[in-house]
Amino acid sequence: MKNFKLTIVFFLSIIYVTSAQQLKNIAKIGNLSEGLIAIKNDDSWGFIDIKGVLVINFRKDIATSSGEFPVFSNGLCLIKEIREDIIYYGFINTKGETIIPAEYIVATPFKNGFSRVINYYKTDTGTNAFGQSVVYYTYNELIIDTENKSVLNFSGSHNLLLHKLKLQKDIPTIRSKFINDDLISIKEDNNTFSIYNLNK
C-alpha cells in the first residue's frame, strides 16, 4: 500500500511538470476505486482518472465514509449537505451528477448494489393546552438500491432527539450488516438477529 501511494505521488509529480493541467497543493491522495482516485485540496475533494485528469472538480460536499478517503462503489460516491444544522447524505455518479439527493441522516457506501441508510420522520400531533404545536421525530433503517428505491424497510421506528442530531450527538447507528452478496442481518431491539435475503 505504501509503495502504491508513493507511485501515485510520483505520478502526480510527473503530471505537475509535463501536463497543461497542473495539480497543486494536494493534501491527501486516496486509493484507486472504480478507475478514479480521490485527491484533497484544502477542505475540498475531487477525483482524477488513471491518466491524472481531474474528472470531478474539487467540491466541499464530497464525503468520506468509515475510511479516510471518499470512494466510488457501484458507480456512486457519498456527498453531504448541511440544512438547518443537520447533515444529510446522498450520492453522485462518476460524472459528478447528483443521482440520489442528500436526504438521509446516515448512509453507507453501496455494496453489491445496495446501501444501508437511516431516514427520519416528523409527526405532528396537534397543539397542547398553550396552543403550541406538538411534534415528535422518529427514525428507521432502510436498504436502498442505486435508483434510491427502498428494497427493505426494517420494522420498528425509534425516537429521535432532533436538537441532539443538530449538535452531532447521539446520531443513530446502522444496525445491519452484509453477511454475503445476498444476505443481510440486523440486530433487533431484544438483542437477537434477523436475516434477510435481498434478492428474494
What does this structure look like?
The protein is mainly β. It folds into two domains: 58 residues, no CATH class; 128 residues, no CATH class. The chain contains two helices and 15 strands. The strands form four sheets. Strands 8, 9, 10, 11 and 12 form a five-stranded antiparallel sheet that branches. It has a four-stranded antiparallel sheet with strand order 1-2-3-4, with helices on one face. β5 and β6 form a beta hairpin. The two termini are 38 Å apart.
Based on DSSP secondary structure assignment, what is the total number of beta strands?
Answer: 15
Q: Give the overall average pLDDT.
A: 86
- Globally, the shape reads globular
Low-confidence stretches: 9-19
Outline the biggest β-sheet: 5 strands, antiparallel
Q: Give the total of domains.
A: 2
Q: Quote the beta fraction.
A: over 45%
Computed structural class: mainly beta
Distance between the termini: 38 Å
Topology pattern, helix = H, strand = E = HEEEEEEEEEEEEHEEE
Q: What is the number of helical segments per DSSP (H or I, 4+ residues)?
A: 2
DSSP helix fraction: 10-25%
Radius of gyration: 20 Å
